[in-house]
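Morning. Coffee machine broken again, so started the prediction first thing and wrote up yesterday's gels while waiting. Chain of 552 residues, entered below exactly as on the submission form.
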Amino acid sequence: MSHHRTGPDDDVDLAVIGAGINGLAVARDAAARGLRVVVVDRADVGSGTSSTSSRLIHGGLKYLERYDFKLVRESIRERHLLFRNAPHLVHDYPMLIPFYAGNSRPGLLIRLGLAAFDVMAVGRGNGRSRSVSARALARRWPALSTSGLRGAALFHDAQVPWAERLCVELLLDAQRFGARVLTHTTVTDLITEGGRVAGVRALDNRSGERTEIRAAVTVNAAGPWIDDILDGQVASRRLNGGTKGSHVIVDPFPGAPGTCIFFEAAADQRPIFVFPWEGRYVLGSTDLTYEGDLDEVVASDAEIDYLLAETNRIFPSAGLTPADVLYSVAGIRPLPYTAGVSDNAKISRGHTVHSHAPAHPGLLTVIGGKLTTHRALAEDVTDEVLRVLGRAPRRCLTRERPLPGADTTDWRAFAEDFMRSSPLTKAQSRRLLDIYGVRARRVLEIAATDAALAEVVHEESGALAAEVIMAVRDEGAVTLGDILLRRTLIGLGPDMGLGAAAACAAIAVRHLGWDDERARTELADYGAELRRYRPRALTTSAAQRSSDRRIP
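Came back before lunch.
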């Protein structure tokens, strides 16, 4: 948060550039091993690529196709650890994989891959894959296209419905170990001394205050922006070759499935998904080469048409059109640059810790990385930081450590007790558990301090005013966008929080020291932030305002 500052004379062991899931995981791991850590990000935690993923914790099935057994084993292990250490956020997620005539991957090949995966995942999954009979398909997935259907298999993977909250919990745990996180603070340049990188200079975006953070090691974990951090300061080959992935969010449609459907697109043979998510459906994703502005990544009309067409093909009764899209989400995968690649699926999804020594000692850049394997990546980075520092190896603590929302000896018993004792409705109580885990009790504590904070601020979700307070005071939110999109998650509903935004800003005025001018500015900035999602609600409200102006 921008109010957690470091001074010019305050040296640290490690400065991390980027507060996405990888940068936060590095901060958590390094701080847990006793290093003094500062993280700097020009926006909010998890506001870049981390919030634009498919929200799936992949065990790595699709990497078997490229014989990347190391990444498959790592993904299976990390998925298992997330089941154990974040049970409120990461859940078992069955997927149906239908086989159609003409698919580039025959059903027999997929079944062999599933069998191999099951062997690798023994003891680290929530069920073996199994074939699905034609009768079962007709009963459970009656709207699935039968044209050319040759069979199907049911596979168990995992989902993190709120990837944003995974980032927040990494932030909270890193802070518990003493790490400091400066959000809405832009790294203006690297501190270089005779080629050596000795930290970063940064600008607080809100106050204009400049600061210098001197660090023995600097880790560039800026995801797709890693080359931008180095540009003009450190001589380096191109490191990032990220591809664009877009998703669309729609309401339930005729024939919508009760489980995730993982199928091959007819247009380009790419595996894509249609999956239930928080009462709606996500269709995705694309995988396109992207050379445009990393700060202006928006799902194109062509991508939206592609996802709708493939969904309509697999579910003939769906009848989806662009008018059905509530909003879209687009981001850039932080993949290694690979010259001359003709198929983006062949680009490695693994990660590399790249040292810029000997030309620029003291600087490491993280290339690649996935949502699923963020913890493993952080362990590798911290191992390398300790080596660069010349310090003895220290045991990694994060394999066994639960995230703050799961900090209880018995998660299931806690959840059952909370549901029984909560004064809220069952739906509200369930939502608090799914978002905050054991920290749901903290929401109720804040709500108990003032009757106004126990009021519902967003009717559809049942979110409480107290959550706005908690977002800022306990979880480092700075802007209205931080509150709505990455803490309370009100902003990820059908209208992207536009109906609740003014009420949330008013709560901040009454309880968090905002004045009316700040509230107006935050509301305008929030509307601007939403434009990259192309929300239907924003277009509708703009059209309504235009219509109102024409009324005599």
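The chain has three domains: 12-49+164-240+348-389, 51-72+90-160+242-332, 408-540. Going to sketch it on the whiteboard this afternoon.
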